[in-house]
């Protein structure tokens, strides 16, 4: 029996709302999956600016944004589905992270599920991270859930989104995963100062000069520390790299070059577990399109036995949507996520809050 589920992702890079209609069919514990359709809706300026400023909002304004953003998501899904000759039984929406404070016992991803369900006419699941945090976990990372089930055959899975994160299958066959450090959030922040939403293919960075003191300062803010912290918030990126970069008087191209180098060096550090071991790495996320960044990573690891695999553009761009759809599939089938050892939770959990559509 197959299930069609729409996975929704609003990433920290604020480049738009990603949507993927995914089909899952399971027989004898084997899962076959496909992405039937995908789409990215650029955020209107008032949405992107509100999401960027949300951590500083009052409680009233934040709840208002939660409502408006949910309606925006629901309406965009309805319009998209009306353009397709396909149906979906469920929406699995990550929402946009405003706060992620697992040490304090909470996380907040906005995009009201009730409004998504009402506007789209499709049952909706949101709030996937809260159950793991309630059990004492980090509520992150979730990527290994899809990596294990849907992308076998790799030893490492590198996602270059607003924040870079990694999942690994260690040489002793244990799964680990964590956030590496800032990525597209910092690069896009600098590109916006030139009037561009992002540095296409890293061309501006490639034209700049790497400033070693800048690189050293950036690296010092996120030391390797055995893959800690496991989860990183957007607020940490803002208070560290972005605040530092905003205080620099270096030309933007030089800052882009330096940030790109710092990201590549962080990735090199976080792959050190595989020193001397043949390792196949799946690379996804918007940063996989950054040719300059990928070339720097490959150059730094040229002496090691790494193979970096960039899949099709659909997988690069919508793997996180596929993950959300898979989480929705697991939730509706009453299956726990199996990440307690990775997240540090006291026990495994089934996440998600379900909102039934009004029909």
Short characterization:
The protein is an alpha/beta fold and 359 residues long. Helices cover 40% and strands 23% of the residues.
Q: Are there runs of 5+ residues with pLDDT below 50, and where?
A: none
CATH homologous superfamily annotation of the largest domain: ATPase, nucleotide binding domain
> Tell me about the biggest sheet?
6 strands, mixed
Give the strand tally: 13
Radius of gyration: 20 Å
* SSE-based structural type: alpha/beta
Helix-strand topology string: EEEHHEEEHEHHEEEHHHHHEHEHHE
How much strand content do the residues show?
A: 15-25%
**CATH class category of the largest domain:** Alpha Beta
- As for the CATH topology of the largest domain, it is Nucleotidyltransferase, domain 5
Share in helix: 40-55%
Mean pLDDT value: 92
CATH architecture heading of the largest domain: 2-Layer Sandwich
> Looking at the structure, what is the overall shape?
globular
Domains, number:
2
Q: State the distance separating the first and last CA atoms.
A: 24 Å
């Amino acid at each position: 029996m197959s299930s069609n589920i729409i996975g929704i992702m609003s990433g920290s890079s604020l480049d738009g709302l990603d949507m993927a209609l995914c089909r899952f069919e399971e027989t004898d514990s084997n899962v076959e999956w496909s992405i039937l359709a995908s789409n990215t809706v650029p955020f209107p300026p008032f949405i992107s600016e509100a999401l960027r400023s949300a951590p500083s909002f009052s409680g009233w304004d934040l709840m208002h944004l939660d409502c408006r953003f949910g309606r925006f998501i629901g309406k965009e899904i309805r319009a998209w589905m009306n353009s397709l000759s396909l149906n979906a039984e469920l929406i699995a929406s990550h929402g946009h992270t405003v706060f992620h404070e697992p040490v304090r016992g909470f996380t907040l991803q906005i995009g009201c599920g009730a409004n998504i369900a009402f506007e789209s006419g499709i049952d909706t699941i949101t709030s996937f991270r809260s159950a793991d945090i309630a059990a004492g976990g980090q509520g992150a990372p979730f990527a290994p859930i899809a990596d294990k089930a849907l992308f076998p055959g790799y030893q490492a899975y590198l996602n270059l989104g607003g924040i870079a994160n990694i999942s690994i299958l260690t040489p002793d066959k244990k799964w680990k995963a964590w956030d590496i450090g800032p990525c597209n959030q910092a690069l896009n922040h600098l590109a916006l100062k030139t009037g561009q939403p992002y540095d296409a293919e890293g061309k501006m960075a490639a034209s700049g000069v790497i400033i070693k003191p800048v690189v050293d300062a950036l690296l010092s803010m996120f030391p390797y520390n055995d893959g800690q912290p496991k989860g990183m918030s957007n607020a940490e990126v803002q208070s560290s790299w972005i605040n530092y970069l905003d205080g620099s008087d270096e030309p933007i191209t030089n800052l882009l070059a330096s940030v790109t180098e710092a990201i590549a060096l962080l990735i090199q550090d976080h792959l050190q577990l595989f020193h001397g071991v043949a390792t196949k790495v799946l690379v996804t996320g918007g940063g996989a399109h950054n040719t300059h960044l990928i070339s720097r990573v490959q150059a730094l690891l040229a002496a090691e036995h790494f193979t970096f695999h960039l899949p099709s553009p659909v997988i690069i761009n919508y793997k996180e949507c596929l993950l959300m759809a898979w989480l929705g599939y697991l939730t509706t089938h009453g299956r726990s996520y199996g990440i307690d050892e990775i997240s540090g939770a006291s026990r495994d959990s089934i996440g998600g809050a379900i909102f039934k559509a009004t029909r």
